[in-house]
UniProtKB/TrEMBL annotation, chain A:
[4Fe-4S] cluster binds at residues 229, 302, 311, 317. Its cofactor is [4Fe-4S] cluster. This is DNA primase large subunit PriL. PANTHER family: DNA PRIMASE LARGE SUBUNIT (PTHR10537). It comes from uncultured marine thaumarchaeote SAT1000_13_B06. Regulatory subunit of DNA primase, an RNA polymerase that catalyzes the synthesis of short RNA molecules used as primers for DNA polymerase during DNA replication. Stabilizes and modulates the activity of the small subunit, increasing the rate of DNA synthesis, and conferring RNA synthesis capability. The DNA polymerase activity may enable DNA primase to also catalyze primer extension after primer synthesis. May also play a role in DNA repair. Keywords: 4Fe-4S, DNA replication, Iron, Iron-sulfur, Metal-binding, Primosome.
């Protein structure tokens, strides 16, 4: 693991071992729950989660108490058990770290920051980055492993500067390349952390988080007759995970195909990290063929879903070729 | 296929395998690979593990397959079902097939075989005998096809060794045994890539889905200096060569590109990918990380020729070097309206006539479906 100074750990607090960090600094969790002088950090931790839940990036100016607020935020999240908040928090923290990474990658005044940023990218995401003047060069195979997550054509290898087995990227692109995995990494660290016992001093904040999470709970009814791919997509959205474009397309076309209305479908997406009601409705309208080219799209075939890693077939699928046939197959 | 034809091929293939054990080996790390084979008039048998040359030879002699395949992938348990094999990695593979090169000569040496009455005739829309439109196409590649295939193969090798930095000695080139070339890249950084990543790599090699922005044309504010230069590495350099031909033509070419606009440039790039600078590989082969690929040294039942490694691509003569069946005379009923060459000898045309021809030609024609044993 990367060894870190104060500034670095405040920028990239997810690299710290929570329990060990507090211990090294001479604090116990109980102190945060009871000491009125430390209440300000607990408040900050709550605000940090709240702003993440609302899709905002926590103020990137930092001081040392920032690391504490991050670690206490994790404690509060674990105590609340609200996955949707954990997902939103991880995404917002990833965006925050991204800003620092981008800045550190070209910090001529501070070689240590630069080396650390490169080390984070290499150690956590297995991308070996080298600096070449103003560019960052990474091996084609490393590039492809990450770039396939993007749908935009500009990320296709053919549209990149490729030379001698390497891909040349700007610092912004280098950080963009690992954005998705950075959120996933933070989320996995939080999920893997132990849930501490609930001190009384945290109770109020934890209850408020549970209330906050309710705002994002999906109330749509889920039929038991849905195939596993659709259930999986709904579960992913429900827990605030970033369902891929093709996953969203599958879900919308399936539900439209089963006769649901746009009003019934749109709320399902409200838990997506990048939810925007207007955009969602517009897109479902397009898929339904009510606007745009008037083409009504149908649900992709099982084979297509397999190739997009969206298939979670179970025996009940019974060799259907399209999810829409689920449960309807003749005997 | 008629039974006495397939019996003849089985005997001939068996003799070939018996006589040419030296040509057919299990590849490196054979115990991690999946093997498969087909028998004449029968389906594919897969999920076989063969560890040594001896195992392979025993399988060949016992089953006398029409085609033999081996995975490019390495597995922990190659003989278990697909879901349980435990995929580790796969060599990068490429297939360049004459049918994908859109060669103008192709229609001159392709004939049609009517699926209703079996009549073989020169290429046309319907069977001249029974007027059926259910037709099979039979192509007997010519020298020009081979020349173009070699050129395409060499262009691919160039991209692999420069852009992708693959060492030439790690690239194995083989004649497929019919009308194409196969390339294997072993031990590269690309071995652990999955199917999606390989799909992006195929698009790169085929120069597909290129956008004008990456080749110097910004929609809003195009600038002359951003368009590609001939000296640039990778696709930008090759695009410049395709667009301008020479350095001195660049200025004129750039003016035209900018005046034609963004969409015209986009179309131009797309068209270049399809018809000129893009390498015409079969992307389905490259993206398949569980494929079983024809085994080197084995016979191809589409032609009776051998899949053979070629060290010197320029000099390699597939219809001589890969034609390893003996020349004992065989009487066949031949129906082939076009001329073809094998082992430097000219054969055909045959108008539904009984002829005595060398066994290698008889096998070739029976495999192609244009002759039957007399």
């Amino acid at each position: 693991m990367v060894s870190l100074g104060h500034d670095e750990i405040a920028k990239y607090p997810f690299l710290a071992e929570a329990g060990k960090y507090l211990q090294d600094k001479g604090f116990t969790l109980e102190q945060f729950a009871t000491d009125p002088d430390l209440q300000i950090i607990v408040d900050k931790a709550y605000e940090r989660i709240e702003s993440a839940a609302n899709g905002k990036i926590y103020n990137p100016k930092f001081d040392n108490s920032d690391t504490f607020s991050f670690l206490i935020a994790i404690i509060l999240l674990k105590l609340s058990g609200m996955n949707t908040l954990i997902n939103r928090f991880s995404l917002a923290e990833a965006r925050r770290a991204e800003k620092f990474l981008e800045k550190d990658l070209v910090d001529n005044s501070n070689k240590t920051s630069e080396e650390l940023a490169i080390k984070i990218i290499r150690d956590i995401f297995s991308v070996s980055v080298k600096k070449d003047k103003n560019n960052f060069v990474i091996p084609i195979s490393d590039y492809l492993r990450h770039a396939v997550n993007f749908h935009e054509l500009e990320w296709k290898l053919v549209n990149r500067h490729v030379e001698s087995g390497m891909v040349f990227l700007s610092r912004h692109e280098t950080v963009r390349l690992i954005r998705r995995e950075l959120g996933g990494y933070i989320r996995s660290r939080i999920r893997a952390a132990n849930t501490p016992s609930l001190y009384k001093g945290f109770e109020d904040k934890v209850n408020r988080l549970v209330d906050l999470a309710k705002k994002f709970t999906v109330s749509a009814t889920i039929s038991t007759e849905y195939p596993p791919c659709i259930k999986h997509a709904i579960d992913a959205l429900e827990s605030g995970e970033n369902l891929s474009h093709s996953g969203r397309f599958m879900l919308a076309t399936f539900l439209l195909g089963r006769g649901q209305s746009i009003d019934e479908i749109a709320p399902l997406f409200k838990n997506a990290p990048d939810y925007n009601e207007k955009v969602t409705r517009y897109q479902i309208n397009q898929i339904a063929g009510e606007t745009g080219s008037n083409t009504k799209y149908s649900c992709p075939s099982c084979e297509k879903l397999k190739s997009n890693d969206l298939c979670f077939a179970i025996p009940e699928c019974d060799n259907i070729i399209n999810p829409i046939q689920f449960g309807k197959k003749r005997l | 296929m008629l039974e006495h034809d397939s019996n003849f091929l089985v005997e001939t293939f068996k003799q070939y395998y018996f006589d040419h054990f030296n040509l057919i080996h299990v590849p490196d790390r054979s115990s991690e690979r999946e093997f498969g084979y087909k028998k004449f008039n029968s389906g594919m048998i897969r999920h076989i593990s063969l560890k040594t040359d001896k195992d392979l030879r025993l399988m060949l002699m016992t089953n006398v397959p029409s085609d033999v395949f081996c995975s490019n992938a390495y597995y922990s348990f190659p003989n278990l079902s697909m879901g349980e094999k435990d995929w580790k990695e796969a060599d990068l593979i490429f297939d360049i097939d004459a049918k994908d090169l859109n060669l103008s000569c192709r229609k001159e040496h392709t004939c049609i075989k009517c699926l209703s009455c079996n009549e073989v005739s020169l290429i046309q829309d319907i069977c001249p005998k029974c007027k059926s439109n259910k037709l099979d196409f039979v192509s007997l590649p010519c020298q020009n096809c081979i020349y173009s295939l070699k050129k395409e193969t060499l262009n691919l090798i160039k991209i692999l060794t420069t852009d992708l930095q693959i060492r030439r000695e790690n690239i194995l080139v083989s004649f497929s045994g019919n009308d194409g070339f196969h390339l294997y890249v072993a031990n590269s950084a690309y071995n652990t890539l999955g199917s999606k990543e390989r799909s992006d790599l195929s698009d790169y090699i085929m120069f597909r889905r290129a956008i004008p922005e990456a080749f110097g044309f910004k929609k809003a504010n195009p600038s002359r200096s951003l368009l590609p230069e001939l000296a640039e590495p990778g696709w930008r350099g090759r695009v410049a060569a395709g667009l301008f031909g020479s350095k001195s033509n660049r200025s004129k070419g750039v003016t035209k590109i900018i005046s034609d606009g963004y969409h015209a440039y986009r179309q131009r790039l797309e068209e270049m990918g399809k018809n000129s600078i893009g390498i015409r590989i079969d992307p389905n082969v490259t993206v398949d990380i569980h494929r079983i690929f024809r085994l080197e040294g084995s016979l191809n039942s589409k032609s009776g020729l051998v899949k053979l490694a070629c060290e010197n691509i320029e000099k390699f003569s597939p219809y001589t070097e890969a034609c390893l069946i003996d020349d004992k005379p065989v009487e066949v009923l031949a129906n082939c309206p076009i001329v073809f060459r094998l082992k430097n000898k000219k054969f055909g045309p045959y108008a539904n006539e009984t002829v005595s021809i060398p066994k290698f030609t008889a096998v070739y024609m029976i495999c192609k479906g244009i002759a039957n044993l007399a």
